[in-house]
Structures are given as structure tokens and as C-alpha cells.
Amino acid sequence: MNPLYQGLTCRPGTNSSALGNCTQGGYSTYSVRVSNVAQIQLAVNLARSLNLRLVVKNTGHDYNARSTGKHALSLWTHNLKGIQFLPSYRSDTYAGKAFKIGAGVQGFELYEAADKYGVSAIAGICPVRGRASSSITCY
Amino acid sequence: MTDSVVDKLQENAALGDHASLFAFADSNITESTRRRRIRRSAKCKTVPGDLLWPSDSIWGLFDLILGGALEPIKPIASVCYPESAYDDYDASKCASVTANWGDGALQYGVPYPRCEFPLR
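ok -> C-alpha cells follow
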């Protein structure tokens, strides 16, 4: 993500006199370390009730910074790591092998699962990016 | 989670009026004063200082019903700043954060986006 979206705040460096300020900048305020669906529902309901800014952070690869927001409540989906192999999945347009994966599953984790079941999976060029992501950036 | 769970929150005297904060959109228990405030401020999201911004006790309540999953976001490099409001300067932790800044795993493991490219 481009650090401009966080106001270039709180950059790392060992020479403290050469650093700028360390403030909250464009970072979100609170994060929910999501491990189940009910937590997501509670957070979405709270955000709706109080008109809070709500963002979703998975790995944080979105170059346009949808994974951060000043004063936001952030849903951190990184730890939703469930992977289920479906040997005979069926939908209107597809019948065959499939994976059902949690939002936090990263590309390399899907590859490991595919290897285990002797099948192929497509996870994009970036193995650490969240597979369920809509973002295409990789760095 | 279901409406009945929210109803149970309603019945919990310790939560009082706050239970409606966690109700679904089609629930009939959303408090009307809050709805009016939201309509009035609809163009802007709630920020600290607004009437709708949660008090510390509501954040605490939220954390409680989340099972302790709520955490305040703190920039990982705050340990490099002797005079920041986070007040957690630590030279050796700073050296480690600085040396590993380009390491993705360091930043996927924290609840806010990794920010690096193109400005280092």
C-alpha cells in the first residue's frame, strides 16, 4: 500500500532525530481480530448503528488503501484460515473438484492444500496475497 | 449470530440500552434517537468527538461480546519514536522493525495494511 494513505506517519528508522512524527495518521482506530462469523456481524451491526467507517484488512495488499481508513473500525480477516476440499462440488455452471477457503487463506496456503490433494489451484502471481482478495497488486 | 442472540443481549440488564447497537438492519429495536442523529450526519462518517462516537465503555462492551478480539491499532514503528503519544520507545525493538520492514510476514501479522512501496 502506498504510505501516502497513512499520512507518511510513523516510518521506521533507528536514527530518531531524522524521523518525522509518529501519530495515528490514516491508520484505523480499532481492529477486530476476526475468528468467526458472529464477530463480523457484531462489527457490521455496530458500524451501521453508529455510522462508523468500516474497512476490511486481510493482508493489506490493496494499493488504493481500502484496507485502512482514518477513524475506522477494521475487520482483520487474516486468521480465517479454513480450507475445505470438495471432491464433487456442483453449481449451475460447474461440476467437479473445488476448494472452499476462508477469507484469510493466502495463495501459498492454497497451493499447499492443492499439493496435498493432488490437484491444481490458481492463486495469482503473489503467493502471500490473500486468495479471496479482489486486489491484484503484489509487492 | 441471529436476532435471538441480539434479543438475549437486550435482556441482559448489564448491557442496558447498548444492546441495540449490535442489532441487525431489519431488527425493530434500533433506537430512534440514534437513527435521527445518523440521518442528520449521513454525509459524514462518525469521528471522535461526535455524539455517536462510542465511549470507552462501549468499546469495552464491544470487546467483551467479541470475546476479547478488539484491539486498538498502533503503528508498528512507534517503538522508534522517543516522544510519541504511544510512549513505547524501545531502541532494540526499533532496530528489529527497521531491519525487517521489507519482510512481508512482519506486516501481515499486524491488523493494518503493509505500507512500503514506492516510498522507503
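Chain A touches chain B through 59 residues (CB under 8 Å).
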